[in-house]
Each structure stands twice: as structure tokens, then as C-alpha cells.
Write a structure and sequence with these properties.
Number of helices of chain B: 14
Structural class of chain B: alpha+beta
Radius of gyration of chain B: 23 Å
Number of strands of chain B: 12
CATH class of the largest domain in chain A: Alpha Beta
Largest sheet of chain A: 9 strands, antiparallel
Shape of chain A: elongated
Number of domains of chain A: 2
Order of helices and strands of chain B: HHHEEEHEHEEHHHHEEEEHEHEHHH
Radius of gyration of chain A: 19 Å
Largest sheet of chain B: 6 strands, mixed
Order of helices and strands of chain A: EHEEEEEHEEEEHEEEEEHEEE
Number of strands of chain A: 18
Distance between the termini of chain A: 55 Å
Oligomer: heterodimer
Number of domains of chain B: 4
Helix content of chain A: 10-25%
Strand order of the largest sheet of chain A: 6-2-3-4-18-17-16-10-14
Strand content of chain B: 15-25%
């Protein structure tokens, strides 16, 4: 059994985080809320997303899996305007998700979850941790996008830095400890990342929200932020690029 | 002209347009750097046609072939392409069979195709108008069709070259045309009469039934496919890419579900002084086309350095039109054909090195057919990307480092780690 009601924004958050990475997702539904974990086809990024039951206006569910075609779901959610209350019900006879937007009832066939993987979250020792306002990072990534396809994120015990270099131009964003909401780092950390992935990752983040970045040396980064009015949580893992020359 | 002025001109060849050199060279010295003189190639084929351009009419066996212009869209010029020749001319419009011909031969028979122009609105596919009807019938036919075209004035214009469509000869506004004995291709005819069949489905099912791409594209351009009310004329150049892209897309959806190849494969083939390398890497499906144009080749006439362009897509596909244009989609179609035959998927990079012997643009078909042919060659197997790149380095003149810098897929493969690398 699955029966939930939520504001359109909550579901749109979920789509924005997930759909740039994967087309088909397995929602793990339980009485606590919804969780999903997905890896992109190139195995470069992983997203783990949880939306607590409290984020919904109504939520009743048994433990179950729903296989969702994200493109289709996103298309349906485009019918809703912000503020609309959306109701989701699982129809177990037809294996469909019944989505109600206002007076509109849309029944969406679900995908068989049998073949869908359960990706494992790698355990990583990442010595650096910084809490930064999302708007700063968004600005830095946007500026870098114009000149390169990758950028370097680095930190030491007093400073957090983002650096990108093109053929002729450079971008540098440097934030000292007092400009950040938090910084802990044992020594220097530096890793390179693909800007394509980073910009997809930060797209759904609200610019006023804080973002937590865990960093190592040539190691994946773990980025965490809240969604769904702080009643949801996203952990995003991104594998690094290695130095080209 | 004083003699030192002549020398001065010669020493500045690199920065000045090559046309100014033609007067100095007159086809003898090949100052433009090409291996043959394009002016003479054109001239010779024009000369053969001259006697036929005196009259305001032409009659002959159309291969069959039609042309839909794009200038002025949605008011465009449609009409037949007719050579002043009888007999079997089917080769003239069958790019699938052209690779074994020299550039001169292709230019030769293409330039004899005289184009009749009749201005219509693209939505008027069903209008009762003889020229529209006959043009459509040519588009649907599979035999050479005897065609008579009466013009308002004498056909003029040089041989026309385009980046993506096959060249054709002089043109003139049509006064009247007539055709005898068109024989429709049965499967195309069936799709034409089915006004509930979406054009994407029609195109793909014809392709699956082994109808040549050039035939599908021809019928597509005369508005023969699709749901009745959406039918329209499609400019020839758009129709070529529409068909390539649509078939490629549908093949690709299936390719992406197949198992990966196990080793790195490298194919090599040289066609019209274009060196083609196709590298397949064991990975989920990705695709990239990189073109390198030497100075004095078709699309790098005036530069003095090699210019390189690429377009690519990762596994999720692309939503915007490729910068490279129609070639990208033609290559993607050919790559997917081979992967599907092998029942495998792979990340594929096509490296095209266009050397100065490639003197004129001949159309997108060249990419489609050259890639097809390259993929028919025996391939070299390698265990690592490094080994493959060493081999490719022996086949191409441009250093591998420069190819890698210009390649999104190679950079991704070499410099982007995967999460699996860290799970230990």
C-alpha cells in the first residue's frame, strides 16, 4: 500500500535531483518516507535521496519498491503548477502509480524493479569538510563552465578554493574560513571534477541553502544538502578527474 | 604586371584566398595546394553538358531524382532532376553505390542533372497541380522515369555544391513537366497511402525492410510519410539528416541494451584522401565524430593551420543539434548498424583526417558510406586504450595529443575516474 499527498514542489525537487543522472529509478518506499539511490550509466556519480514522511501532507505506506521512468514522471509533473497538491496512490492490480493533479487523474505504468541494481555507497575517508552557501558554489561553477570542462576544488585549514583554467582564461573563487559556515581540514586536499556533473548536481539546490562538501586528495567528493523544506536529504557522490598532463 | 608583384603574390598564398591564385596557376602548378584543380574538374564536366543547355527544355531518364530547395521556406522550389540522357541512369542518384567511383566521375554525372524549379508552399503536398504530382511520383518511384521538362528560360548556373547534399547541375524555372511510366516502390507506396502511420515509424520500417536510405530520404522530401494532415515537402538537405537522425535514434535505443564489446577495436580506411579511424571502446554506448581539415581542403580553404571540430553524446544522448551538422548523424547511423550486427554496444569515436586530395564537398552520403565501408574492414584488437592510441598514431598524421585535446570521449575515458575505482 502506498498513498501520499504532497505539494508539487516536493516532487519536483525529487525529479530535479534524480533525472539528470538516470532515466529509470527504483523508489524504496517505507512507513518512514521515500528513499532512492541511483548511479549514472557511466558510473561517475551517485545520488542518494531521502524524503521523510513529514515532508508530505499525508503519507501512508508499507514497505515496497516502485520502478519509475523519470522522463515520464517529469512530463506528468510539468502539468502541475507550484502550490498544487498532488496525490500519489499505488494501484497494485495494474502495477501503476495513480497521480492526481487537481481534477486530473493520470495513471502511469511502473517498470519492473527486478533487474534494477542496488548500488552500494562506497565508504570514503575524506579529510576535508566545508559548509558553504550554495550561491557561492553556483556562481563559481557557472563562471568555470564558460572556459573549461573541469575545475579543481581544494581546501586547507584556513581556506576553500575553486579554480578552473581554460586555454587563455582562468576562474578563481577563494573563501577564507571566516567567510564560510564551517571548515575542517587535516592538511591540504585537492581534487578535479567534471563541470558537467557539478552543474547538474547543484541545479536543484536553493541558492540560500548551505551545502556540505567532503573532499580528499584525488578522491570522490561527497556533497550533501537538504531539499523538500529541510525534510529531505541528498547525498551526492562524484568521482574525480585525474590530472591530464 | 611587374614580375616581382607576381612573386609577392605567391609568397602570400597562405593568407590570401586561393581564388586569386587561379589566374597565376591556370591548373598547371596547383598553387592552391590541392592535388587536382577543382576549376578544371568542374569545367570539363560543364563542357560535356553545354550542347544540351541551348534549348529551353530537357528530356531524359530521371534516375529518378527530385530536389526540394530550402531558400524562402515555407515557399520553396521543388522539381525533378533530369539528365539529357536515356537508358539506365539510376547510379546518378544512388550514393550507396558511389564509393567505388572517383570524385571526377561523381561530379561528372551529378553535373548533368538539370534541375527544374517550381515554387510551392511546403504544405501543398496534395494540391492538384501536375508538377507537384509528377515530382511526388518521381520521389516514390524505383525505376528510371522518362521525364520531359519545359523551362521558362535556358538552364543556367554552375555546378552547385553543398556541404550536406550531393552536387547537381544547372537549373531553370519549370514551365511544365511530364513523366511516363513511373513504377512505385511497393513498400514506399504502402507507407504513402497509410495516412495514419507516423513518419518516424514509416521511415524505420522501410529501413528495416532494406530500402536504401537515399530512397527513403527522397520519398521523405516529397512529403510521402506521416499522418495525413502533417505532411509537407521537406527541403532535400533537411530530409537527409532527418532520416539519418531518426533511424540512428531508433537503432540506438536498442544498441544501448546490448552487452559491451570486450576489447578495444580500431578500424581504418582511406577514402578520397580522407583517413577514417573508428575506435570502439568497451563501455556503455557513447558517440563522437571529430573532423580535422587540412588547409586547402573543402572546409578549410583559407586557413593555414589544421582546423578540428567535434560533436559528441554520452550515454544519455543529446537534445540539441550537433555543431558538425548532418555528418554527425550519418556517422551515428552507420556505427549503430555495425554494433547491432555484432549484437554489442561500445563507446565509439570517429576520427576523420581530411587531406588536400579531398578537393570538393560531395555531400553527407560520403560520411555515411565511408563509415560503413571503414566498419567493413578487418579491425585491430587491443587490450588497452594506450595500445589503440599508439596504433592510431601510426595511421594519422596529426599527433594523438591534439586528437585527445579535441575529443570529449577520449578525455572522459582517460581522465574521468569511476566510482567503482574507489570501492576497493
Amino acid at each position: 500500500m502506498f498513498n501520499a499527498k504532497a505539494k508539487a514542489e516536493i516532487l519536483k525537487d525529487l525529479i530535479d535531483v534524480t533525472s539528470p543522472l538516470v532515466n529509470e529509478v527504483k523508489f524504496n518506499v517505507s512507513e518512514k518516507g521515500i528513499n532512492l539511490r541511483a548511479v549514472d550509466p557511466a558510473h561517475v556519480a551517485m545520488v542518494d535521496l531521502t524524503i521523510e514522511k513529514d515532508a508530505f501532507d499525508e503519507f501512508k505506506a508499507d514497505e515496497m519498491e516502485l520502478g519509475v521512468d523519470m522522463d515520464k514522471f517529469a512530463g506528468i509533473m510539468r502539468l502541475a503548477s507550484s502550490g498544487d497538491s498532488i496525490s500519489l496512490t499505488y494501484d497494485d492490480k495494474a502495477n501503476r502509480l495513480v497521480i492526481q493533479i487537481g481534477n486530473l487523474v493520470r495513471k502511469m505504468a511502473l517498470i519492473d524493479t527486478a533487474g534494477m541494481p542496488d548500488p552500494k555507497m562506497p565508504t570514503l575517508e575524506l579529510p576535508g569538510k566545508v559548509v558553504v552557501k550554495a550561491s557561492e558554489l553556483i556562481q563559481g561553477v557557472r563562471a568555470s563552465e564558460a572556459i573549461s570542462d573541469h575545475l579543481a576544488i581544494s581546501m586547507n585549514k584556513d581556506n576553500f578554493e575553486l579554480f578552473a583554467e581554460g586555454d587563455t582564461d582562468t576562474v578563481n573563487l577563494s573563501l577564507s574560513k571566516d567567510m564560510l559556515e564551517g571548515l575542517t581540514s587535516n592538511g591540504d586536499c585537492k581534487s578535479l571534477f567534471s563541470i558537467d556533473y557539478l552543474s547538474n548536481m547543484i541545479k536543484p539546490v536553493k541558492s540560500s541553502e548551505p551545502l556540505t562538501i567532503h573532499l580528499g586528495n584525488d578522491n570522490p567528493t561527497r556533497v550533501e544538502f537538504a531539499i523538500a523544506n529541510k525534510k529531505g536529504h541528498v547525498t551526492y557522490l562524484l568521482a574525480p578527474r585525474i590530472e591530464s598532463e | 604586371m611587374p614580375q616581382n608583384a607576381v612573386f609577392k603574390n605567391i609568397t602570400t598564398t597562405n593568407s590570401s584566398p586561393s581564388t586569386s591564385l587561379c589566374a597565376l596557376c591556370r591548373g598547371t602548378k596547383l598553387l592552391c595546394g590541392k592535388s587536382r584543380c577543382p576549376v578544371l574538374v568542374r569545367y570539363h564536366s560543364q563542357n560535356k553538358l553545354k550542347p544540351f543547355l541551348a534549348a529551353k527544355m530537357v528530356h531524359g531518364a530521371s534516375p529518378p531524382s527530385v530536389f526540394v530547395g530550402r531558400v524562402g521556406y515555407p515557399k520553396v522550389s521543388i522539381g525533378p532532376l533530369v539528365p539529357p540522357r536515356m537508358g539506365n541512369t539510376s547510379l546518378y542518384d544512388a550514393p550507396e553505390q558511389w564509393l567505388d567511383r572517383s570524385l571526377d566521375e561523381i561530379v561528372d554525372f551529378r553535373s548533368s542533372l538539370i534541375r527544374g524549379k517550381h515554387t510551392v508552399n511546403v504544405y501543398d503536398v496534395e494540391k492538384s497541380d501536375k508538377t507537384i504530382e509528377f515530382t511526388r511520383e518521381l520521389g516514390l518511384s524505383e525505376n528510371c522515369v522518362f521525364t520531359e521538362a519545359l523551362f521558362n528560360k535556358r538552364p543556367t548556373g554552375r555546378l552547385r555544391f553543398y556541404d550536406d547534399i550531393q552536387p547537381h547541375g544547372p537549373s531553370a524555372p519549370l514551365k511544365k513537366m511530364n513523366i511516363t511510366n513511373p513504377k512505385y516502390n511497393q513498400r514506399i507506396e504502402k507507407a504513402y497511402y497509410d495516412t495514419d502511420l507516423k513518419s518516424a515509424e514509416a521511415v524505420f520500417s522501410l529501413y528495416k525492410n532494406n530500402i536504401e536510405i537515399s530512397k527513403i530520404q527522397k520519398a521523405f522530401s516529397v512529403g510521402a510519410f506521416g499522418i495525413g494532415k502533417y505532411r509537407r515537402f521537406v527541403p532535400t538537405r533537411w530530409s537527409i539528416t532527418a532520416v539519418d537522425s531518426q533511424i540512428g535514434k531508433q537503432l540506438m535505443d536498442y544498441t544501448k541494451q546490448l552487452p559491451w564489446i570486450n576489447t578495444f577495436r580500431v578500424y581504418y580506411h582511406n577514402q578520397y584522401d580522407n583517413r577514417w579511424i573508428i575506435l570502439m571502446m568497451p563501455s556503455e554506448f557513447q558517440y563522437e565524430l571529430i573532423e580535422a581539415w587540412y588547409p586547402n581542403t573543402t572546409w578549410n580553404q583559407y586557413g593555414n593551420t589544421i582546423s578540428m571540430y567535434n560533436s559528441y553524446e554520452f550515454n544519455e544522448g543529446r537534445t540539441t543539434y550537433a555543431d558538425i551538422g548532418g555528418c554527425y548523424y550519418a556517422g551515428r547511423l552507420a556505427v549503430n548498424e555495425t554494433l547491432q550486427k555484432d549484437k554489442r554496444q561500445a563507446a565509439t569515436v570517429i576520427l576523420r583526417e581530411a587531406h588536400p586530395g579531398y578537393i570538393m564537398p560531395i555531400g553527407v552520403w560520403n560520411v555515411r558510406e565511408s563509415v560503413r565501408r571503414t566498419l567493413k574492414q578487418p579491425y585491430q584488437n587491443f587490450d588497452t586504450l594506450q595500445q589503440s592510441l599508439v596504433y592510431i598514431g601510426q595511421k594519422l598524421d596529426i599527433p594523438m595529443k591534439r586528437w585527445i585535446q579535441n575529443s570529449a570521449l577520449l578525455k572522459h575515458r582517460m581522465f574521468q575516474t569511476r566510482l567503482d575505482d574507489f570501492t576497493g
